[in-house]
What we know:
Mean pLDDT: 85
Low-confidence stretches: none
Structural class: alpha+beta
Order of helices and strands: HHEEEEH
Largest sheet: 4 strands, antiparallel
Helix content: 40-55%
Strand content: 15-25%
Strand order of the largest sheet: 1-2-3-4
Oligomer: single chain
Radius of gyration: 37 Å
Number of strands: 4
Amino acid sequence: MNPHPRPCPPVRHARRGGAFTLVEVLLAITIFALSAVILASAYVNVLNSYLMVDRVAQSSADLTFARSLVLTEPDRKKLEKGGEFDTADTRHVKWEVEILPTATADLFTVNFTCTIGALGEPEPQKTVQTFMLLRPTWSIDAGERSKLRENAKTRILELQGKKT
């Protein structure tokens, strides 16, 4: 007996050439197909995001233009009739306002409603905004306007302690 036996060399199985087995090829194809599906769906999501951002930006521009028409119009009667226009990209914008007087002379509350419809969209986008405008040209009743100014003058004098 030899006190230090030599280790046996590892057993090597002989392969037939350098080819892949069928299982290895199928596994590689499966991994490639899954990767391709994941990358394609991510790309489609990016494209959809770009379209949505573009649509929101265009709607915002249309809404801003309609609101600027309201803010720059001095004639109250013309505004109360509302308005509509078509955009360059075949969208139809319709707006209307409700003008309400306030307790302050020449100050009005404006309820602005804008509806933007586009071809291919099932429902038009509707936006409602409320803002206040100081417009002396919108005052219809001069007597009411004078009364509101007199009330404001009285309140100011009371706050200053000059009138009780």
